[in-house]
Design a protein that fits this description.
Length: 308
C-alpha cells in the first residue's frame, strides 16, 4: 500500500530571538519538498499552515520571558493539529518555524501514541537540548524550552497540561554543543540519552543511533524526529539564528537519515529553525529538503547533482 504523508506548516517565530522563521514553511515548499516526497512514492497532502490560537498567559516573575501568550497559543494549536495528522497519515511532517513548535507537535503525537498503547521515542537532532523551563531561561526565548515541557517538567503554568509526558529515557539527543548549566543539571537528573559532538567525533554516529533504534523496536515504539538546522555545520546550513560551529557534516546528517529510513520506525518529523532571511540563495532549505528525502527513501545512487 502507498504510504501517506500529511504536511503542515508551522510559521512560528515567537520563540526565537530573530525574525524570519515564519517564512520557513514557504521556503520548504519553494524548495520542492512536497514534490520530492511524491517522487519517492509517497501519497503527500499539503494541509497548509496551522494558525495560532489566541491565548492569555499568567503573570510570571521571570521578566526575561518573551511572547509567552503567543507560544501558549501555538502549542495548543499545533498539539491538536499534530494529533489529527498522526491519526490520518502514516508520517506527518511539520515545517517550521522555530523549535518552540515541538512543544505542540510532540504532545499531539504523544496523545496519538498513548491511544495506540505504544511509547513515543524522540530523536532530537540539535546543537541545543532545549531543556529550559520558564523559571530557568535567562534569554527568555521559548524555543529553548520544548523538551522540558513535553517531558512534563514543572514550571509551565498557563500551557496546556501535558497528559502524556515523554519518558526522558526515551529521548536521544545528538549533535549537542551548546548546553547551559541549568539544562545540564536537569538532563543529568532525568536520564535523557546524550551524544555531544565530541562523543560523535570519538565514536562515530552510526553505533549510538543503531542502539537507540534497537530500543525503539524492542519497545514497539513510535519514533518522532526533530531536526533543527543548527544540528548542521553552519558552513553548509547558514539559515539559522542560533549557529554554533562544529556541527554535523553533510555525510553524517545523510547517514542518520538513511539509517532512519532503513529502520522503518519513523512515524513523524519536525523540520525546524529554518530562517530564509539568513539563507544564501536557498541553500539551507534545499539541504534540509534533501535530508528529508533521504529519510523518506532516496538512496545515494538516486541522488542528483545538488545546487547547494
Amino acid at each position: 500500500m502507498t504510504q501517506t504523508c500529511h504536511i503542515l506548516g508551522a510559521p512560528v517565530q515567537t520563540g526565537a530571538s530573530q525574525p524570519g522563521c515564519l517564512m520557513g514553511p514557504a521556503a520548504f515548499r519553494t524548495a520542492g519538498l512536497p514534490e520530492t516526497l511524491r517522487s519517492l512514492g509517497w501519497d503527500v497532502i499539503d494541509l497548509g499552515d496551522v494558525h495560532m490560537e489566541q491565548a492569555e498567559a499568567p503573570e510570571h516573575h521571570n521578566a526575561a520571558l518573551r511572547n509567552l501568550p503567543e507560544t501558549i497559543g501555538w502549542t495548543r494549536a499545533l498539539s491538536k493539529a499534530a494529533y489529527k495528522a498522526a491519526k490520518s497519515s502514516d508520517c506527518p511532517v511539520f515545517l517550521g518555524g522555530d523549535h518552540s513548535l515541538s512543544a505542540g507537535t510532540v504532545t499531539g503525537i504523544a496523545r496519538f501514541a498513548a491511544e495506540q498503547g505504544r511509547p513515543l521515542f524522540v530523536l532530537w537532532l540539535d546543537a541545543h537540548p532545549d531543556f529550559h523551563t520558564l523559571e530557568s531561561t535567562d534569554s527568555g526565548n521559548l524555543h529553548g524550552t520544548p523538551v522540558a515541557y513535553f517531558t512534563g517538567q514543572a514550571g509551565f503554568d498557563g500551557f496546556p497540561l501535558v497528559k502524556n509526558p515523554i519518558e526522558p529515557t526515551n529521548i536521544c539527543m545528538m549533535g549537542l554543543r551548546s548546553v547551559d548549566g541549568a539544562e545540564r543539571t536537569g538532563l543529568q537528573r532525568t536520564g535523557v540519552e546524550l551524544h555531544d559532538m565530541r562523543a560523535i567525533d570519538e565514536h562515530g554516529i552510526a553505533a549510538p543511533l543503531r542502539a537507540f533504534l534497537q530500543r525503539v523496536r524492542k519497545a514497539n515504539g513510535l519514533l518522532h524526529i526533530s531536526l533543527d538546522v543548527d544540528f548542521l555545520e553552519p558552513a553548509i546550513a547558514p539559515a539559522v539564528g542560533t549557529t554554533v560551529p562544529g556541527g554535523a557534516s553533510f555525510r553524517e546528517a545523510h547517514l542518520i537519515m538513511e539509517m532512519l529510513h532503513d529502520s522503518g520506525l519513523v512515524t513523524s518529523l519536525d523540520l525546524v529553525e529554518l530562517n530564509p532571511f539568513l539563507d544564501e540563495r536557498g541553500r539551507t532549505a534545499l539541504l534540509m529538503s534533501d535530508l528529508a528525502a533521504s529519510l523518506f527513501g532516496r538512496s545515494v545512487l538516486d541522488r542528483m547533482t545538488g545546487t547547494y
